[in-house]
Amino acid sequence: MKILDFPKQNRPRERFLKLGPEALSDAELFAILLRTGTKGENVIDMSNRLIAEYGLNKLFECSLKELQEIKGIGPSKAMQILTIAEIQKRINQSKHPIKKITCAEDVFNYFHERLKDKKEEHFYILMLDTKNNIINEQLISKGILDASIIHPREVFKPAIKNSASKIILVHNHPSGDPSPSNEDLEITEKLTNAGEEIGISVLDSVIVGKERWWNGKEKE
Length: 220
Description:
Layout: H1 12-19, H2 26-34, H3 43-54, H4 56-61, H5 64-68, H6 75-94, H7 104-115, E1 122-128, E2 134-142, H8 152-161, E3 166-172, H9 182-198, E4 201-208, E5 213-215, H10 216-219
Parallel strand pairs: 3-4
Antiparallel strand pairs: 1-2, 1-3, 4-5
């Protein structure tokens, strides 16, 4: 049955307007988000199937590619789902804003919410002023980290543009284990040496895991 064939008072949007979001089931809320179903499956039935099969948490943890492998989820619906997930991460992070870095735990808390469920490595630089206040951040690469393709020029260009005094290297390990690989240590050494040459110090290198972190300075 199509949504338009439902009695008007039973449609998700009408129920939302009359009773508010708290009165709706997970599937009804998800139906409002996705808006349309597919041929042979209305959006509420699709939402019930997705929640029953994957669970809300697992859906929001999927990558864009993984979502599009699910029956009925094309690029548009996949982006809608991931947009909600990203907004939620930013809301959670905004509740505990970090403006100054005093230790590696600050870096972990700054990035953990958005990186903890990523399925591939994301390599960032966090740019600081002379007092370790955060100036800006920049995503440098996404995917498997490779010292041969992480060029110092791409790392320090945004730092120079933002007049940063120092930077912190940050990336995640999708496995959840933040222990550094030889490649991680090689990249850190390479960029630390480059920073010394141009006068922008690499203050630390922090690897974000599922529940904990590793950082170079505290391990020295």
